[in-house]
Amino acid sequence: MSDWFLPEDERPWTSGNLVRPLVHGASYFARLVEVVGGTRAGDRIVFTDWRGDADERLADGGPTIGELLRDAAHRGVDVRGLLWRSHSDKARFNAQENRHLGEVVNEAGGEALFDERVRRGGSHHQKLLVVRHRGRPDEDVAFVGGIDLCHGRRDDAEHRGDPQPAPLDERYGPRPPWHDASLEIRGPAVSHVLDVFSERWDDPTPLDHRNPYRALMQRAARMPRHPEPLPERWDPPPDAGPHLVQVLRTYPAKRPAFPFAPEGERSIARAYERAFARAKRLVYVEDQYFWSGLVAGALADALRREPGLQVIAVVPRFPEEDSAVSGTPMRLAQHEARDVLHEAGAGRFAMYDIENTAGTPIYVHAKICIVDDTWMTCGSDNLNVRSWTHDSEVTCAVVDPEGELPVALRTSLWAEHLGLPQDDPRLRDLDQATSLWEQRVGAPGSRIRAHVLTAPRRAVRAWAGPAYRLLFDPDGRPRRIRGTDRF
Fold first, then answer.
1. Is-contact 284 275, C-beta < 8 A?
2. Strand partners, 417
3. Rounded to whole angstroms, how far apart are CA atoms 405 and 88?
4. Strands, E, within 94-167: which ranges?
5. I need a labelling partner for 31 at 20 to 30 A (CA). Which of 16, 162, 300, 309 fits?
6. pLDDT at position 431, please?
7. Torsion of CA 341, 346, 350, 351, to 10 degrees
8. Are the C-beta atoms of 341 and 350 separated by less than 8 Å?
9. What is the pLDDT of residue 99?
10. Please, what's the b/e burial string for 295-319 (b: 16 or more CB within 10 A of its CB; e: otherwise)?
């Protein structure tokens, strides 16, 4: 089973883990309330986030994100966080919201820092949270996935949207439905997730550019100029289950370099390449973007190699901000990726989007891939060059020697999307996967619709193609391999 993973000299992996998929933000937030709410003095919490909203309610009656972390710090829990410094909210980014969450944590005695140690035009996109318990290592847990601690994420299987919505294209409505997922992990892999945080925390590079404005922001959020050293590490938690886990990352090549990744790291990209090269029956993807020519090329090679292989992708119906300037390059890139896969696999490739019972499109933010019901991933990365080379990302590849976890996750997702009972035997028939999806378009209870993309005009391609490659999906590899198919 470990043959699905990258070699250990590239990325370590562990056995003895128990992995539980948490589909939907409401499920994830409910677990955070239970786990973080159960911490005691002397326990430790670390987290990273792309965007955090201190006032986001984790349940209808609260608590909020800020209250949950504040109360833990007041109980004597060591709370530390790394928040992407980001850009102004006026540009639809997250700086003010992240600063507010940092203020809440720091005023309570924790330590949350703005982290702008990124490549130019990049971001820290990792989303993880680790809870370690002093004297109770069997309770240690890590969460890794695509769900930020912010507005818009608290949705459930009904997909009526978060009561505290995030800005999105108007066709998603005033309360956009949101599909997302994370993993809850127990066992030795918790230490490997913690390593991701520790390496970034211990990076001696200054956290941000040095100018008066940035210094003022740090002082306003009560953030120290240099992080306090992390306490001594505890032993890894004991075995908790049967699952094998490999923690994968993306870091760009940049100056000054990451000390733990001097030329960047692209283990996520290499892990996908390895899994696609082994695929024989089905690659199932849920992805926010799915628009890279390199990604499409790797899947196209697999479709050409294996005549029985099928690929099914679930994506958002519309870009998150579908203006002429931002939406057009995204749609062009996805259209080109789809054409490559159609040419390679014809009817063995299909792309869908989903909607709720009211007919409102659901924004797909999940980052899930399942190959042959054997190897699965869930994390912060999307299937594009930016996520594979340019931003910081973390994902977990999981293999279940008992063969149940990837099947259970896939069939639960399909049951929801296709409007079928989870025990329907058709959900387990990989050979008829694309036929089943085609049959369920427009069927009673089904939420899927064929994803429609129109070919852009030549004049549009002239500017949208370069904009896509330079701004929306930049390449963060070292110069010597940039523009190649090597990672």
1. no
2. none
3. 41
4. 111-115, 128-132, 141-145
5. 16
6. 95
7. 50
8. no
9. 83
10. bbbbbbebbeebeebbbbbbbbbbb
Instruction: Compute the distance between CA of residue 233 and CA of residue 172 in angstroms, rounded to an integer.
Output: 45
Following DSSP, what letter does each residue of 120-141 receive, concatenated? TT--B---EEEEE-TT-GGG-E
Residue 93, judged by CB atoms within 10 A of its CB (0-12, 13-18, 19+), counts as middle
Asked if residue 176 lies in contact with residue 397, where contact means CB atoms within 8 angstroms, the answer is no
Residue 440's H or E segment, with its range, is helix 433-440
CA-wise closest residue to 202 among 231, 235, 236, 234: 231
DSSP string for residues in 204-251? -S-SS--SHHHHHHHHHTT--SSPPPPPPPPPPPPP-SSEEEEEEEEE
pLDDT band at 86 (very low <50, low <70, confident <90, very high): low
CA–CA dist 38, 383 (Å, integer) = 36
* Sequence letter at residue 433: A
Amino acid in position 161 = G
Question: 376 is written with which tokens?
Answer: 């699965």
> Is residue 414 within a helix (H) or strand (E), and if so which, with residue range?
helix 405-418
β-pairing, 363-364 vs 178-179, is: parallel
Inform me whether the pLDDT recorded for 286 exceeds 80. yes
Q: How many helices (H) and strands (E) does the chain have?
A: 12, 18
Q: What share of the chain is helix, strand, coil (3-state, %, to 5)?
A: 35, 20, 45
Give residues with Cβ within 8 angstroms of 391, minimum separation 6. 118, 119, 122, 123, 124, 125, 250, 252, 476
Containing 105, the helix (H) or strand (E) segment is: helix 95-107
Question: Would you say 277 and 302 are in contact if contact means Cβ atoms under 8 Å apart?
Answer: yes
Answering whether pTM is above 0.90, one says yes
198-219 confidence digits (pLDDT tens) = 999 999 998 876 666 666 766 6
Q: Which amino acid is at 17?
A: N
Asked if 19 and 398 count as a contact pair (C-beta separation under 8 A), the reply is yes
- Give the SS3 label for residue 400: coil
pLDDT bracket for residue 92 (50, 70, 90): very low
Check whether 91 has a pLDDT greater than 80.
Answer: no
Distance of CA 300 to the CA centre of its chain: 23
* C-alpha separations of 362 from 127, 152, 180, 259 in Å: 21, 12, 10, 40
Task: Scan for tokens 């209870």, then name that residue.
Answer: 445
Name the helix (H) or strand (E) containing 379. strand 375-379
Q: What distance in Å separates the CA atoms of residue 382 and residue 438, rounded to the nearest whole number?
A: 25
What lies within 8 Å, CB to CB, of 423 at 6+ separation is none
Residues 377, 278: Cα–Cα separation, whole Å: 15
What's phi and psi for 141, nearest 5 deg?
A: -150, 145
